[in-house]
Amino acid sequence: MPPSQRTIGSVSVISDKKMEECVKLFNEANWLAQKLDVTIVNSYSESEVSAYNTNVMKYETMVDRFNSECAGKQSRSACEATQKLNREQGLQTQSCD
Fold first, then answer.
1. Is 37 exposed, middle or buried (0-12, 13-18, 19+ CB in 10 A)?
2. Which residue has better confidence, 72 or 28?
3. Residue 44 and residue 3: Cα distance in Å, rounded?
4. How far is CA 48 from CA 40, 41, 51, 53, 84, in A?
5. Where are the domains of the chain?
6. Over 80: is that where the pLDDT of 5 sits?
7. Is the C-alpha dihedral spanning 63, 57, 36, 32 positive or negative?
8. What is the CA radius of gyration of the chain?
9. Any bridge partners for residue 14, and if so which?
10. Nearest 5°: phi and psi at 84?
11. How far apart are the C-alpha atoms of 20 and 29, rounded to whole Å?
């Protein structure tokens, strides 16, 4: 969905390859979250509790990594497409470097 109003600013740019890794990381974290949501843990089983806690820590690590490396960033190709559209509209463009 396009933005409802124009804004001026810049967004950090990452390589297309890095953006692909970000999408994979997001999907894996999302799938793990869904798995955790439906997991029923036998609280009397040390191995089940340990396995669940391991998955929770893995999920938290994935979210932290996504937030630090991916959130609020755009791919180089998205940046270049935005530059082109903004130039055509006579709007200010940001650098994709």
1. exposed
2. 28
3. 51
4. 9, 6, 5, 9, 53
5. 14-69
6. no
7. positive
8. 19
9. 75
10. -60, -50
11. 14
| Residue 9 CB contacts under 8 Å (≥ 6 apart), including other chains | 94
Phi-psi bin for 13: left (phi > 0), alpha (psi -120 to 50), beta?
beta
61-72 mean pLDDT: 95
- Tell me, what's the pLDDT at 1? 43
Q: How confident is the model at residue 69 (pLDDT cuts 50, 70, 90)?
A: very high
Type of residue found at 24: K
**Site of tokens 């994709």:** 96
Tokens of 39: 């997991």
Taking the C-alpha atoms of residue 52 and residue 54, their distance in angstroms, rounded to an integer, is: 5
For the chain, what percent of residues have pLDDT higher than 70? Answer: 91
Per-residue pLDDT of 84-94, as tens digits, reads 888 888 888 88
The SS3 assignment for 9 reads coil
pTM for the whole thing?
0.78
